[in-house]
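Reminder: ligand-aware prediction takes two inputs, not one.
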Amino acid sequence: MNELAFAPPATPAVAIEGGGRFPVHRIYCVGRNYADHVREMGSQPTPPFFFMKPADALVANGAPIPYPPRTANLQYEMELVVAIGRSGRNIAPAGALGHVFGYAAGIDLTRRDLQAAAKENRLPWDAGKGFDHSAPVAAIRPAARGHLSRGRIWLSVNGKTQQDSDLSYMLTGVPQLIAELSTLYELKAGDLLFTGTPAGVGAVQPGDRIEGGIEGLEVLRNTIVPPA
Ligand code: MN
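Here is what comes back for the chain with manganese (II) ion:
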């Protein structure tokens, strides 16, 4: 009598370099974490703030991404994604990297028109950020192969470079982001954290090929296809 009414959906997961898959619990994202992107959005620098995407918004590397509904301005944001491998709350910055399972290249796809309307009306960002297929992520490189605090981060559309920056330009680094986030939520093994995007964000259309890379990590390649 305690049986589930129907079979639960499969646990979303991200490939791990060298084999296996990382089961995803939650997807957290940080806003306004590169000064040049803060400027291009006409925003002011703020302390780190967070929003979420549903775990089942994940898209595998190479999978097609259907153009989402209710938008005329789908934009890419290339980001370093941190995978959490050890749970914790109120984590000290000095110990934060010990909670990192690994790193991956990801894109925080955004319905910019819906996000802009939400900002203007002081409404939540969920519809602008947390929609289906909004979180493509490439394979995770285990932290045993080194932590990442610098290195090129770039994105191209149809072979033309649109974003080209360096992880070292993050306003708040990974240890401090983990520490701050863990004061708001208990972090769990399986959480992902998108760490913000540099300048150069822009719109894509069905048929566009997006490639995004971070020095040392698997390159993310996805194509936008017509609406589902
Ligand atoms: Mn973002």
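The chain has one domain: 13-225. The chain has five helices and 18 strands. We will return to this case in the review session.
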